[in-house]
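Cross-check.
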Amino acid sequence: MTLAVRLLRPRDAFTVYVPGDSSAFVGPEPFTTACGIAALPYTQDFESGFPICWSRNNPSEVLIDNNFQTNPTSFLRINGLAAPGGIATSEDVDASGQVSVWVKWDITEGANNAPEPPADNLEVEYFDGTQYQTIVVYDANIVTWQTDSFLITSGLTNQFHVRFTSIGTGS
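Predicted model, tokenized:
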């Protein structure tokens, strides 16, 4: 039996029961709807909280925060207090057929509204369809907000996403 259900949202969790061979229902079978693949141009401002189609290894280490230093808006905060440090991964974006893609973010280091050395390194990578490629590794010496952007010219697939990993013992 095939049943098509429309208008499901990404990451909705369901439990289903299906008719078995002897007409008795089999289940429960839990499942979660998948996220679609985002289209370009893609932006994320974190104003609505942690994006539903992003992933994180630990909600206590990767969260949405706001009002830090000169930035009054919401931003992704990645701590490194636990081992491993915080890891946040963007949703998949369809970059196939593109010659290049610019990736851009604002970054600073610190905690409690003040820089906090010694702290983490932050590794930023992108997925090329097979493996992660390093874009940049930041040390803990960024004391004010700065905007960085990078041009990616290889590995542009429909599974393109960016991963942010905190490496170290600070926050």
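The chain has no helices and eleven strands. The mean pLDDT is 84. Passed to J.P. for a second look.
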